[in-house]
Amino acid sequence: MFTHMSRLQFEAKPEKPDAHYARKLQELIGGAWGEMTVTMQYLFQGWNCRMEGKYKDLIMDVATEEIGHVEMLATMVARLLEGAPAETTADMVDKDPVVAAVIGGMDPQQAIVSGGGPTLADSNGVPWNGRYIVASGNLMADFRVNVAAEAQGRLQTARLYNMTDDPGVKDMLKFNLARDTVHQKQWLAAIEELKADGLEEEIAPSALFDEEDQTHNKTIWHLSDGKHGAEGRWASGPAPDAIHEFSYVQNPKPLGSKASAPKPDPLLYATTPENLGLIEKAIKKLT
Amino acid sequence: MFTHMSRLQFEAKPEKPDAHYARKLQELIGGAWGEMTVTMQYLFQGWNCRMEGKYKDLIMDVATEEIGHVEMLATMVARLLEGAPAETTADMVDKDPVVAAVIGGMDPQQAIVSGGGPTLADSNGVPWNGRYIVASGNLMADFRVNVAAEAQGRLQTARLYNMTDDPGVKDMLKFNLARDTVHQKQWLAAIEELKADGLEEEIAPSALFDEEDQTHNKTIWHLSDGKHGAEGRWASGPAPDAIHEFSYVQNPKPLGSKASAPKPDPLLYATTPENLGLIEKAIKKLT
Amino acid sequence: MFTHMSRLQFEAKPEKPDAHYARKLQELIGGAWGEMTVTMQYLFQGWNCRMEGKYKDLIMDVATEEIGHVEMLATMVARLLEGAPAETTADMVDKDPVVAAVIGGMDPQQAIVSGGGPTLADSNGVPWNGRYIVASGNLMADFRVNVAAEAQGRLQTARLYNMTDDPGVKDMLKFNLARDTVHQKQWLAAIEELKADGLEEEIAPSALFDEEDQTHNKTIWHLSDGKHGAEGRWASGPAPDAIHEFSYVQNPKPLGSKASAPKPDPLLYATTPENLGLIEKAIKKLT
Amino acid sequence: MFTHMSRLQFEAKPEKPDAHYARKLQELIGGAWGEMTVTMQYLFQGWNCRMEGKYKDLIMDVATEEIGHVEMLATMVARLLEGAPAETTADMVDKDPVVAAVIGGMDPQQAIVSGGGPTLADSNGVPWNGRYIVASGNLMADFRVNVAAEAQGRLQTARLYNMTDDPGVKDMLKFNLARDTVHQKQWLAAIEELKADGLEEEIAPSALFDEEDQTHNKTIWHLSDGKHGAEGRWASGPAPDAIHEFSYVQNPKPLGSKASAPKPDPLLYATTPENLGLIEKAIKKLT
Amino acid sequence: MFTHMSRLQFEAKPEKPDAHYARKLQELIGGAWGEMTVTMQYLFQGWNCRMEGKYKDLIMDVATEEIGHVEMLATMVARLLEGAPAETTADMVDKDPVVAAVIGGMDPQQAIVSGGGPTLADSNGVPWNGRYIVASGNLMADFRVNVAAEAQGRLQTARLYNMTDDPGVKDMLKFNLARDTVHQKQWLAAIEELKADGLEEEIAPSALFDEEDQTHNKTIWHLSDGKHGAEGRWASGPAPDAIHEFSYVQNPKPLGSKASAPKPDPLLYATTPENLGLIEKAIKKLT
Amino acid sequence: MFTHMSRLQFEAKPEKPDAHYARKLQELIGGAWGEMTVTMQYLFQGWNCRMEGKYKDLIMDVATEEIGHVEMLATMVARLLEGAPAETTADMVDKDPVVAAVIGGMDPQQAIVSGGGPTLADSNGVPWNGRYIVASGNLMADFRVNVAAEAQGRLQTARLYNMTDDPGVKDMLKFNLARDTVHQKQWLAAIEELKADGLEEEIAPSALFDEEDQTHNKTIWHLSDGKHGAEGRWASGPAPDAIHEFSYVQNPKPLGSKASAPKPDPLLYATTPENLGLIEKAIKKLT
Questions:
Q1: How far apart (Å, rounded) are the C-alpha atoms in residues A46 and A28?
Q2: How confident is chain A (287 residues) per 10-residue block, as mean pLDDT?
Q3: Beta-carbon count within 10 A of A96 CB
Q4: Does pLDDT of C176 surpass 70?
Q5: DSSP codes, C101-116
Q6: D217 near C182, Cβ under 8 Å?
Q7: What percent of chain F shows pLDDT beyond 90?
Q8: Rounded CA gap, C69 and C25, in Å?
Q9: Chain C: partners with 3+ C-beta pairs within 8 Å
Q10: For residue E202, which of E134, E151, E141 has the smallest C-alpha distance?
Q11: Which of F24, F113, F208 has the most A C-beta neighbours within 10 Å, making it the best mutation to test the interface with A?
Q12: Residue ranges of A 90-109 with Cβ closer than 8 A to chain B
């Protein structure tokens, strides 16, 4: 069960409204790597966690914090939209190119649908959806996604940080950058902890290593004509699992036979050699 | 530019058809973490790569391989659907519960839409979409996603491996498992290489560390009531960047003021205290 | 079966083209609360109606009208796009900021995809989809949605009304506002009629009142720290069903036990305490 | 800012697992009218609320409760999936029709993607998305949607209640039914309060009544051939706004002129009468 | 403007209910090539048509018919669902495998969401969306899509025809097959008419033939290793425009230079050679 | 299996960057009729092809070429975005309307998400999805779609050609136009070849002609009030199958009986006449 306090985790006050920027900030609310994604991803990981204790407690701590980040951004967007033009005419646009540009660059749904507030969508207005999250039950596989999400999130926040010089917005984004930094670190630390605890290994899932094809679990195939693919540490020397040696296959050949689909049921009406002649006869019969 | 050879990278021949399993395999074709995702993710990362040389060449090698994996799976699905019932009736269903179950568990679009072949959708029939991929231009942030994608992909492949005992399907999945293993290793190695080359650091992006809030980039906030969140290595001691010390805030308080949205433009018709009385008057005037 | 006459239900002639506004009007065509939604919602409610007579006949009357509203808006959008720039160059944009702004603010798909006509999408270009509608078979539950749809539709139309001063557009929107008004009234009246006819009650569905938890069907839980939640008529006194008394629970406690997920099948590879040590052993065996 | 306690708002323990039912319950998690929808809808309404005080506090109380409902359902789904078959083969399916049916009827992603847990999707596996919610800033328009959401939600819960006889599941659904009941009542009461406070009127938004077309804001048009549409209270007598009299137009005629789209820019290559002959000439020139 | 009569265009009465089949028929309602697609595609083509006269009138005739097809299918689905189990329990499923299979194979939303009626979705429950349609203003390009839509529609109808032996369903599908046949013929005839009228040519749009690259508008590139690609009439001899000669390029070489992306703005934090060393220095400064 | 060479199929170098145009070009990458669609459509058609030989080889040749077109466009977009403003402020927008317009008209995700590169989305930022493609197994039905796709693709390319005067962009588009031309011709030729080979007939699928309704497979129904629908060659004379004669039904009447849905299971809580009185009694019992 959750409770809410009406103060924000961190201040979210722009010095001045900025309708263009309000649209861009939508990316951090409802983008594939926005706060809505980490909120729901961590909540579902926590609820799907099969081990009581420190991992689950950490996940729920962070998940609960992230709902508060959606709240900060939603509040910021509403404030950035203060005074955005709601009554405009073709004439005004013709006369004042700056007004024209502002209106052209706004997210129309922030006005028409939300009445000057945020939507649950990204900076192109595409709605957030539940396929952006994952909660597989395997903590190693999921923490890999969590590191990635915090890295992409910090990257987008950093880009947005440079797209404004409003001190209030920058203050909030400094906080967000800091949280993305510590959350990246924390998931990296949690990955180390999983290994130190003997719960998972470097490669996820820690299973079926015996069964997987032992010839092809250490080779990189040279399938594009770049000449430098073999120069990295992925192409020779020990792999990160400290078990295998990488190798780079310079002239790979296909191992399978020709791709082909079997004859389908005739009632599915695929075009097949069996059709030959049959159709002509059928047509003749009709005419 | 690409070229194609008609032999498969690895064999994709089931011993027997299995229409139920053909539906499940769709997850590896068009699921959020399926082969279509890694194909398009790596292609767009390669095209968006801002450094010529070993990283770009590696990305393009692997991207090109992944198109071939979609091909293997598409071929396998068509073969698993061989002989799947295309002509069935309510009577047959009533009489034979196994037929009933098979039909009930099939993906209806594999028959009705694709005529006994795969769709570009997941195991619930939801179409693959372009928001599943990311290519940010920042190699550290993107390789984090790549590790995650290969981990989730290997996890799903491992689960699917246990859901069949067809030796032909298992053979192909062993190859897939191996490729997911080596690709996980390779992206982990590439992350190390980026750091060794002095191109990126542990935390992505390697930027704005000075500007981010220095108080809040090392603390975990205790916001759920689990008691064990402070026991992991993320709660104290050195962070993975070897610069900061983690700390765990046991009784965090909100730092911001009350969340509130500003007064909107009256022409957006939000409900505000200013409405008080006005509406009554307007209604009176009308009557 | 339907028939069509080529005259519009109401005139849809702008005085002048306005490409920016053509984009905004898309919200009323293909937005979540646009005319396409009410068209398909009412059609499916009519086809799914389980009572012959006045309710079904009303639904079909209004459904049929709404197709004509999509037609009016589609025609208006095409006319607003007359003369919109189809041949433009970077130079023109550099030289004339108004041209630049107009082009920047247009929906690019109205030109590239539709050749100067409407799309079946909203003002951000996101396609309309079938999940926007509901037709549950329960008339009370559905008429509640209908009132809501007409209210949101009238609200958006009112906002759009203020964003133009073209007399032709305003004329059409006056008609649309009027229809949204009467349709709101009509669904409110139909709700009253359902109750007067003894077919449904205030709360939908009129079922399982005996079975539902009798302790928790009248209480509001105080879970956010606002102090005024208990001041409304929802917090004490008779509920709208004239049966229960509302009450406001100031310090609610969770009634359930700890959230936890059971041990999963080991073949799903969730991280569990059982993994402890096993992985180390497996790795040793491999090396 | 939010905090979380690990006990559930209400117990969520099935007596026995039931993999089929776990799929159906997804509708209440990630369906268009599920708990995720009311959670995010109320949160965004609260953040977008332009009046401090009782309305905003109520909205935030209920929003915070709803996150806890998602938690209850997510927990229930994981428990219903305990022991669901993760290792199955075509042979087993052939031999045991009940196993076949269970596997056929399961949501494959609950196993393959979530490892025996819920997804953020509906009972057909379609992901939840942000267009399901609305927060317009106008409380009357939004409370109409809220009543509708609670009505549809209670209707779906009632249907699901009859699809199980597991006493643990039924206990939780009794609680859910009760909450849907009280939430319906509460939004109905809040609508009354808005009117009593003079903030809004029956018809939303309380604006532009003077400007809307005065002829067409009280008429129902007879456009389908049902004979009973004129028999309800929507067809004559006073409208719910107590201002207008309804009337029913038996033989409505279109008021507009012929629908037509203007001549487009020739560079958009629409087919127009101007093309006549031009193409033939162009082709001749080429040959 | 539209009017509706309550009789169906053709009878839609199954002899017996069949819940499995009700799910499959959804493909013809809300699938990418279902009746909803042709309805909205033709309506938008009609409204976007830039020539008054026979073409526009034909489009509107057929568009109006198609709404009636959605109606027939919606009615049929509701009737096929009559008596589908709404009260079922795990016990019943355990005891009767046929019941288990029927429930497993049903679309759960037809019961839970629609109360025994159709949804606006396809046979996998994915909602219909507005990107399935096109109305480009160019009649040749659009009639090509129309022929394709009627061909795919007839193909799916034919497949569904074999999946039932209910005489009532088959009767309706015979009518649907016939309509798909005549509509295919009609769009093919309309394409001929466009050419005969000198309005469009074989290749759409009839424009920019002079400007397009004259070397590459007649060659097929051999990029896959199949040996038979050069054997068809597309590889040599006159092209369908009667102007060009086809040719087949056996060993095509890329004509462009190396794919590469330019140096990005440093504030977008792409990984570039310029990063070399800089990061190390920055990190040192921090420690 | 595929291989890649790093040179582009054709040059993709703009003379100057143009951020607005970079957004528009997204339509050709990730739009419904863009290069991603033809790539995946042809690949899946090839893999689903049930006849070895010239048709399959042709499909795979063209599919492989199309991946290279996505590559050309992705490269072009990155180059058009060179130097696009990544550091902007509200002040700059206020002072320079051209900067304001450029920023307003850009796709924000190309900067925030992709770091100055393309996304896998259309010109409105809506992600590409797998339902845009079809691979039915029936070559006639699929080649009809292929002709349509190349026609819509050429039309959009032609429109985009007029929206730039950058010679580098125009050069690439001339190549694209040429390829769209030859691919249209080639699918038209392949349709002829299918008929010449006796594999398929004009109408797809070449099946069930005997079974379809013989009365309604040649008539056009006059359902809209346009007067010219009967003037085309689709209204009388021989149909393109050379078997039937078209006819035009001037006053069509519905052939079916009244649309109605059956009584549903009472546990689905539809509103039915049976509810009459029951609810009142239930309510009385409660009070």
A1: 22
A2: 97 94 97 98 97 96 98 98 76 73 86 96 98 97 98 98 95 98 97 95 94 96 96 94 91 95 90 78 66
A3: 17
A4: yes
A5: HHHHHS-HHHHHTTSS
A6: yes
A7: 82
A8: 12
A9: A, B, D, E, F
A10: E141
A11: F113
A12: none
- Element of type H or E holding E249: strand E245-249
Q: Is F285 on the interface with B (CB under 8 A)?
A: no
CB C224 within 8 Å of CB D64: yes
Average pLDDT, chain F: 93
Q: Coil, strand, or helix at residue F247?
A: strand
- The encoded tokens of residue E79 equal 């009737």
Angle of helix A54-80 versus helix D35-47 axis, rounded to 10: 50
A195 in Cβ contact with A143 (< 8 Å): no
Cα A10 to Cα B255, C131, C262, D51: the distances in Å are 5, 36, 37, 22
| Residue F203 backbone phi and psi in degrees, to 5 | -95, 130
Going residue by residue through chain B (287 aa), what tens digit of pLDDT does each one get?
Answer: 999 999 999 999 999 999 999 999 999 999 999 999 999 999 999 999 999 999 999 999 999 999 999 999 999 999 999 988 777 666 676 777 777 777 788 999 999 999 999 999 999 999 999 999 999 999 999 999 999 999 999 999 999 999 999 999 999 999 999 999 999 999 999 999 999 999 999 999 999 999 999 999 999 999 999 999 999 999 999 998 888 899 999 999 999 999 999 988 889 999 998 887 777 676 677 66
**Looking at CA atoms only, how far is residue B94 from chain E in angstroms?**
7
Whether A213 has its CB under 8 Å from any CB of chain C: the answer is no
C-alpha distance across the termini of chain F, in Å: 73
Pairwise CB contact (< 8 Å): D267 & F162: yes
CB contact under 8 A, F90 and A166: yes
E224 with B115: Cβ contact below 8 A:
no
The more confident residue out of A281 and F118 is F118
Residues of chain E contacting B103 with CB distance shorter than 8 Å: 20, 101, 105
What integer best gives the mean pLDDT of chain D?
Answer: 93
Two structure tokens written together for C206 = 């009129």
Establish how many alpha carbons lie within 13 A of residue C280's alpha carbon, considering only the half-sphere containing its beta carbon.
9
Question: Which amino acid makes up residue E216?
Answer: H
Most E CBs within 10 Å, among D123, D279, D285, D287, to test the E interface: D279
Q: CA separation (Å) from B217 to A157, A177, B231?
A: 14, 8, 19
Interface A-F: count of C-beta contacts within 8 A? 165
Nearest CA in chain E to B44: E261
Question: Amino acid identity, residue E155?
Answer: L
Does the pLDDT at position E278 exceed 80? no
Neighbours of E257 (CB within 10 A): 14
Residue partners of D44: CB distance under 8 A and separation at least 6: A74, A114, A117, A118, A120, D133, D135
Whole-number Å distance between alpha carbons of A24 and E16: 55
Distance in angstroms (rounded) separating the CA atoms of residues D218 and D208: 15
| Contacting subunits of F (3+ beta carbon pairs below 8 A) | A, B, C, D, E
F271 Cβ under 8 Å from any chain E Cβ: no
CB C279 within 8 A of CB A200: yes
Contact B68 F1 (CB under 8 A): yes
E2 forms beta bridges with C4
User: What pLDDT score was predicted for residue C283?
Assistant: 65
What is the token pair recorded at C69?
């509203």
Structure tokens at E22: 């009700």
* Single pTM value for the model: 0.96
Q: Which residues of E touch D278 (CB under 8 A)?
A: 198
A partners (3+ CB pairs within 8 A) are B, C, D, E, F
Rounded-to-integer distance, Cα C227 and Cα A4, Å: 12
Q: In this complex, do A117 and D44 lie within 8 Å of one another by their Cβ atoms?
A: yes
Distances from the Cα of D64 to the Cα of A6, D41, D151, E43, E128, angstroms: 11, 11, 19, 44, 33
